[in-house]
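ingest -> validate -> predict -> emit
validate: passed (alphabet ok, no gaps, 295 aa)
predict: started
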Amino acid sequence: MSDAVTVRVGDERRRGHAVDCSDLLPAADRVVAAVRDETADRSDSAPLSVTCPTAGPVHDHVGLVSPSMTLRTRTALAAAARSRGVGTPVDDGLAAARAALADVQVPATPDLERARRRLAGTESAVDECRERVATLRGRIQARREDGRETTGLEGELAEATAELSEHETERAAAREALSMARREARASRDARERRRRLEDRLANLKRTARDHLVEAVRDRYAAAVTAAPGEARPADDGSPADADPFAVDDVTAALAVARVADVRAPVVLACDRFADPAAAAAWLDAPVIRVSPSA
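emit:
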């Protein structure tokens, strides 16, 4: 209960473990953004700023409690368990899978169609030049047999032969480029497949870890749901709240998760479940900033 929070709204400055800003009407999402933004302006001239301990991962789930919120309760509860230092048997596997996934570099997919078109164009050019060379050789041979001058045609043949050599060089380069593009395409496919397998493995490990974490704090969460102020309403699917602690409205679930978690940054309350911010802070064992539910 020693982590004090300072909230500045315009020229108004309020400080404490439980801060009531409901009369100042700051928007709840602005307050949450100020709580989570370590680079926010802390000066007195700032329209809105919050000085507080750094928000942890669980704050992403239950940092704002409002009637309009939606909560993935089991995911949030797993984060709450983590905040309490709970580990799982698959943590090493999770770390290894994350590291392996981070190391996967997927090369850009080459334009195979462009490489094919390039090769096709050079092959056509080679064929055309070969036909021209053959034609010129035939004409030169015919002129020689007739005893006629061939100097002009021989010059054309030399040019055509040089052009053919250039096109053959271009074709060789195009073939190599297509071969390289195919290798790169295979490497890209292999890398994507490896990434997909690692993503699947990571997702499975995350589910296993989440289930373990939820089970580790399930009883504490159920007790918090029972003790939560206000009447817990059934979840949207109509399941009775007394049969399943996860089948309750999101506000009740969020309050229960926050009570289970080790929350250092202030919880922004935009709900009327507590008599005052001090009562909320005491029940949650966390710093609190209360804002108007309509803000």
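Residues 112-206 form one domain.
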